[in-house]
Write a structure and sequence with these properties.
This is Tripartite tricarboxylate transporter family receptor. InterPro entries: BUG, Bug_dom1. Residues 1-22 form the signal peptide. Keywords: Signal. The N and C termini lie far apart (66 Å). The protein has helices at 3-28, 46-62, 77-85, 103-106, 142-151, 166-178, 190-198, 209-217, 241-244, 265-279, 282-290, 300-320; strands spanning 35-39, 66-70, 92-97, 118-133, 156-160, 182-186, 204-208, 222-226, 252-260, 294-295. Strands 1, 2, 3, 4, 5, 6, 7, 8, 9 and 10 form a ten-stranded mixed beta sheet that branches. Helix content is 45%, strand content 19%. It is α/β, with parallel strands linked by helices. It is globular, with a radius of gyration of 23 Å. The protein folds into two domains: 35-126 and 253-321, Bordetella uptake gene, domain 1 (D-Maltodextrin-Binding Protein, domain 2, 3-Layer(aba) Sandwich); 129-243, D-Maltodextrin-Binding Protein, domain 2. The longest helix is centred in the first third of the chain and has 26 residues, at 3-28.
Length: 326
């Protein structure tokens, strides 16, 4: 090899060797500017409230603010699509509820893949649901209600905040799992649905804890069972569905954080570490409690597996219930 060739080869080796180091250094200094967090739902909603309190605390831990940007519309898919197309550098994040994994069964045409085009940073928090009935209901236990629904199919109704929401899908899963037949009545949100349950116009609702708890405490609705595997601290005398009719039953709604699929793993790990640390702060715990939300400490790999399993479960429920994509 002549001198010129040797020098050219040496320069190439030095340049190539420097590339991973430069990448590592970039990740090591992350974040060195504010991080955008796309919120694909209207400001003031539960995802927004939970997301903001966690984001503020994460920003303090990371040393750079997480700036919430609202991109609402089309059941969250407008904002999700924006993040799917964003640079995979850790500076554009998505906060979305568990509906993220249900999009393939909700919509015929999506411009992104809700699973393959993203990586999970973590679960922000989980939301228990509680089966509530009107105070005038003749059913005193959840087992009695299910027994009636089996014996007299179609005579009972259950409310939800809307088609393909988790409270709706939880009801469909319970129907198929117990061979009960309780007809679904969809509303535009939890509040009107709970109002009609309280008024006796609907027989049952699998309601998120936050909006249901004040009505339970005031006696406007009566809790029969909770959807989590263990009893809730707020409702210690209310049995679980697992205790009554379906052993091992454990259902929650949840909120998560995602990044574009090619985001470097060290960045995802750093974001997850900040999220878990934030979830342990008393400020976040109290804020989440006010929203009926329990903090999560899942690692990013655990959250990824959880998301995939949840997506598969609920897509199957939608197919079994013959819920057609739009």
């Amino acid at each position: 090899m002549n001198k010129r060739s040797f020098l050219a080869a040496a320069c190439t080796m030095i340049t190539t060797a420097g590339l991973p180091l430069a990448g590592a250094q970039a990740q090591g200094t992350y974040p060195d500017k504010p991080i955008r967090v796309i919120m694909p739902w209207a400001a003031g909603g539960p995802t927004d409230v939970v997301g903001r309190v966690v984001a503020v605390q994460m920003g303090e831990i990371l040393g750079q603010p997480l700036v919430i940007e609202t991109r609402a519309g089309a059941s969250g898919t407008i904002g999700a699509a924006q993040v799917a197309r964003a640079p995979a550098d850790g500076y554009t994040l998505l906060m979305n509820p568990s509906v993220q994994g249900i999009y393939p069964a909700q919509f015929k045409n999506l411009s992104f893949d809700p699973i393959k085009d993203f990586r999970m940073v973590g679960v922000l928090g989980t939301v228990p649901m509680v089966a509530v009935v009107p105070p005038t209901s003749k059913f005193k236990t959840f087992a009695d209600l299910i027994q009636h629904a089996r014996a007299q199919p179609g005579t009972l109704t259950f409310a939800s905040p809307g088609v393909a929401t988790l409270p709706h899908l939880a009801g469909e899963l319970i129907n198929t799992s117990t061979k009960a037949s309780i007809s679904h009545v969809g509303y535009r949100g939890s509040s009107p649905a709970l109002t009609d349950v309280a008024g006796g116009h609907v027989d049952l609702m699998y309601a998120p804890l936050a909006p249901a708890l004040p009505l339970i405490q005031s006696g406007k609705v009566v809790p029969l069972a909770v959807t989590t595997k263990t009893r809730l601290a707020d409702l210690p005398n209310v049995p679980t569905i697992a205790e009554t009719v379906l052993p091992d039953f454990d259902i929650v709604t949840w909120y998560g954080m995602w990044v574009p699929k090619d985001t470097p793993e060290p960045i995802i790990a750093k974001l997850n570490k900040a999220m878990v640390e934030a979830s342990k702060s008393s400020k976040v715990v109290e804020a989440l409690k006010s929203q009926g939300t329990l903090p999560s400490t899942m690692g990013y790999q655990e959250a990824e597996a959880f998301n995939i399993a949840e997506s598969a479960r609920w897509i199957k429920v939608m197919k079994d219930a013959n819920i057609q994509p739009e």
